[in-house]
Amino acid sequence: MTTSPQAQATVPAQDATTTQSAPADAAAPQDSTATTDSAAPAEQSADAAPAQASGQPQQASATQIAQIVETEFPTYDGDKDGEITKDEFGKWMVALRSASEPGTNAQSAEVQTWVGNAFATADADKSTKVSKAELTSFLSQGAS
């Protein structure tokens, strides 16, 4: 199965009991009982539990994605220069993909190609690094 660079990037919420899905050109079906508030913090309320229990992550809003990037970016920015390299970006994208597709093989040719394409798309200024703003924009494509 070939997955587009942005497809089904699941964004872990700060609360480890839920996950949120960043939109993509092949977004997962939404649980009609779960809603997201664009002004809500990244943590999900107890109302979000049914969506997680059904195995369908909620689609994160652009605001939630920005909050998660702000919180998680330092974890992946190894040299703390405010930008992540292709390798650092790849680790993050594989972690996101693994959250929605357990058993993802980070070393497979398919995943490496997916990461490379995602990085090329995310690196809007072609600086060979991705800033918080670029990552937020990349992950927020199609978000409400």
Series of secondary-structure elements, N-terminal to C-terminal: EEHEHEHHEH
Spatial strand sequence of the major β-sheet: 1-2-3
Dominant shape: globular
Question: Span between N and C termini?
Answer: 27 Å
The largest pleated sheet is described as: 3 strands, mixed
- What would the average pLDDT be, to the nearest integer? 72
What proportion of the residues form beta strands (DSSP E)?
5-15%
Helix content: 40-55%
Number of helices, where a helix is a run of at least 4 consecutive DSSP H or I residues? 5
Number of strands: 5
Which class of secondary structure composition applies to the elements?
Answer: mainly alpha
The gyration radius over C-alpha positions equals 14 Å
List segments where confidence is low: pLDDT < 50 over at least 5 consecutive residues.
1-54
Which secondary structure elements does this structure contain, and how are they paired or packed?
Layout lengths: L8 E4 L6 E4 L26 H5 L4 E2 L2 H15 L6 E2 L1 H15 L8 H14 L7 E2 H9 L4
Parallel strand pairs: 2-3
Antiparallel strand pairs: 1-2, 4-5
Architecture overview:
The protein is mainly alpha-helical and 144 residues long. The protein has five helices and five strands; from the N terminus they run ββαβαβααβα. The strands form two sheets. A three-stranded mixed beta sheet has the order 1-2-3. Helix 1 links the parallel strand 2 (19-22) and strand 3. The protein is globular and about 30 Å long.
Brief summary:
With 144 residues, this protein is mainly alpha-helical. The chain is built from 5 helices and 5 strands; from the N terminus they run E-E-H-E-H-E-H-H-E-H.
